[in-house]
Every structure is written in C-alpha cells, then in structure tokens.
C-alpha cells in the first residue's frame, strides 16, 4: 500500500518539481532512465509509492533480492542528491550520493548512501552501495 497518494499531475516525490507522469512516472511505467541519477530518483519515488516491482526490475540481477518487503510505517519525506559521478547517457557506470529523509514511529531520520549503478543490456540498474560493485 502506498505511503502517500501522488496523482499523475502532482509534483514528483523525487524533488525535481515536474509532475509525476513527466518525471519518474515514466520510468516506473517501464521507460529506460537515461542516467544513473534519473534511475536513482525513480527508485526513491518507488519507495515513496510502494512500487516494489520497479525496485526489483531496476536492481542488478547479481545483487537483487528475491523479494522485497517495504515497511509501511516508513514515510519517505524528501530526497537530497548530494552529488553524482559519471552515470551520463554516455557512461556505463556511475555513482550517486544522496540522503533520503523519512519519518518512522514519530521520529525523523535519513538514509545516506553513495550508490553504484551500471548498465546491463543497455539499461541503467542499481548495484548497491559503493564498494559492493559487481565484478
């Protein structure tokens, strides 16, 4: 069940300010993300919306879990992209550093991660935190 309802014309949860349909919604619907950062933003949006399918589809096969059980009590509030290296439409690897802010049990928190991305069959996928790259 989604943590918060976001209509197609509402601002995308990723923070770019575009409507969901013209931003991350297209990647959740199956369009390939053009950059590592765009994929990372769509994965954050998938966490907000509870879209487990997108999270699993966009995860590297070698590091992807068999299933994913999201905590319905976590309310994702804000994404802050701190930096990105490589990950352009012309690269095969990239990293994106971010903070994902949330509330859980009435307390604020954030997840800080420097995420590794690579292309598999031409599509960007999430590998995991930097240091967990697939060899």
UniProtKB/TrEMBL annotation:
Domain YchJ-like middle NTF2-like intervals: 35-127
Pfam families for this protein: YchJ_M-like (PF17775)
Gene3D superfamilies xref list: 3.10.450.50
Name recorded for this polypeptide: YchJ family protein
Organism listed in the record: Kineococcus halophytocola
Taxonomic path: Bacteria, Bacillati, Actinomycetota, Actinomycetes, Kineosporiales
């Amino acid at each position: 069940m989604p943590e918060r309802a976001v209509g197609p014309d509402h601002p995308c949860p990723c923070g770019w300010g575009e409507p969901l349909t013209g931003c991350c919604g297209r990647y959740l619907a199956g369009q390939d993300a053009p950059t590592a950062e765009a994929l990372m933003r769509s994965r954050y949006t998938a966490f907000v919306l509870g879209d487990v399918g997108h999270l699993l589809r966009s995860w590297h096969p070698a590091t992807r879990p068999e299933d994913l059980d999201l905590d319905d009590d976590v309310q994702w509030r804000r994404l802050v992209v701190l930096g990105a290296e490589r990950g352009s439409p012309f690269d095969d690897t990239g990293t994106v550093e971010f903070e994902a802010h949330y509330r859980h049990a009435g307390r604020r928190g954030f997840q800080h991660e420097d995420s590794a991305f690579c292309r598999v069959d031409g599509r960007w996928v999430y590998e995991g935190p930097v240091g967990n790259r697939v060899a």
